[in-house]
Amino acid sequence: MSIEFIGFISNNNSSETVVRQGPVLDPTHIETVAKAHENAGFDRALLAFHSTSPDALQVAQHVLNTTSRLNVLIAQRPGFTAPTLLARQFAVLDQFSRGRVALHVITGGNAAELRQDGNTLDDKDERYARTSEFLDVLKLEWTSDKPFTYKGRYYQVENAFSQVKPYRPEGIRIYFGGASDAAIDVAGKHADTFALWGESYAQVRDVTSRVHNAAVRQGRPTPRFSLSVRPIIAPTEKQAWEKAEEILARATALQDKTGYRKPADGHAT
């Protein structure tokens, strides 16, 4: 099986250890990092979502316009945009970019942050149930050759239809993450790629096994898996751990100054 290398394009030059000096939305930084990804041979780059950040869908449009080969992975949250509309937005962008678009579905685990966007559905299992309905409708918009009606608990549409479809016959890939039982069930039904962090071998085996079993229950093939890590490189393991501790100390010292936080959904912004 082929390996896909996925990078990350931030909206400005900042991180846990770098204090932002320029604007929140820095087009020059975005263009430079996007082209660096493409020139380095990355397959895809993530555009993350947060309730206070620039809209990832629009940033992705700029990235696609400034590159010719790099694919993008656009994080979006169910509950903020109607699934019929988001499906058409993604299909249009996929057509313009000739199939370089993928969707990263972030249900969100931090209720306080979600409320910043007016999302008051606090129960996590309910949010995943809504995500499943959202993806039901999204996929129908992408695949249905005639108007369809959908009546769920969270979404109801009548005679919905999209004239524009994804660029490729196989459609737009859906990336998905989450460790709860509710999240795993949704992954089994909808995910093309399941995203998880670089945890212990035992934890990774456990999650991938649960996702596989959930897909089997849905009669679907096992999704591909994405493992997110931040390599810390040094001549020896001891020096790498020392370097990691030094990075952590700098990040902790700068946290209040930068306002930089790792969101609860696990994807930096």
Walkthrough of the structure:
- It contains eight helices and nine strands.
- The radius of gyration is 19 Å and the shape is globular.
- The chain has helices spanning 27-40, 56-66, 83-96, 111-115, 124-143, 181-190, 201-217, 237-258, and strands spanning 6-8, 44-47, 71-76, 101-105, 148-151, 156-160, 173-177, 193-197, 224-228.
- Helices cover 42% and strands 16% of the residues.
- α3 packs across α5, α5 packs parallel to α6 (181-190) and α6 (181-190) crosses α7.
- The model is unreliable at 262-269 (pLDDT under 50).
- Strands 1-2-3-4-7-8-9 form a seven-stranded parallel beta sheet, covered by helices on one side. It has a two-stranded antiparallel ribbon with strand order 5-6.
In short:
The chain is built from 8 helices and 9 strands. It has 269 residues and is α/β, with parallel strands linked by helices.
Tag the structure with descriptive keywords:
269 residues, alpha/beta, TIM Barrel, 7-stranded parallel sheet, two-stranded antiparallel ribbon, 8 helices, 42% helix, 16% strand
Strands, helices and their partners?
Layout: E1 6-8, H1 27-40, E2 44-47, H2 56-66, E3 71-76, H3 83-96, E4 101-105, H4 111-115, H5 124-143, E5 148-151, E6 156-160, E7 173-177, H6 181-190, E8 193-197, H7 201-217, E9 224-228, H8 237-258
Parallel strand pairs: 1-2, 2-3, 3-4, 4-7, 7-8, 8-9
Antiparallel strand pairs: 5-6
* Distance, first to last CA: 30 Å
Q: What count of domains describes the coordinates?
A: 1
Low-pLDDT regions: 262-269
Major sheet size, sense and barrel closure: 7 strands, parallel
Q: What Rg do the Cα atoms give?
A: 19 Å
CATH superfamily: Luciferase-like domain
State the share of residues found in helices, binned by percent.
Answer: 40-55%
> Which fold name is given in CATH as the topology?
TIM Barrel
Count the E strands.
9
The SSE order reads EHEHEHEHHEEEHEHEH
Mean model confidence by pLDDT: 91
Strand order within the widest beta sheet: 1-2-3-4-7-8-9
- Give me the number of helical elements: 8
CATH architecture: Alpha-Beta Barrel
Percent range for β-strand residues: 15-25%
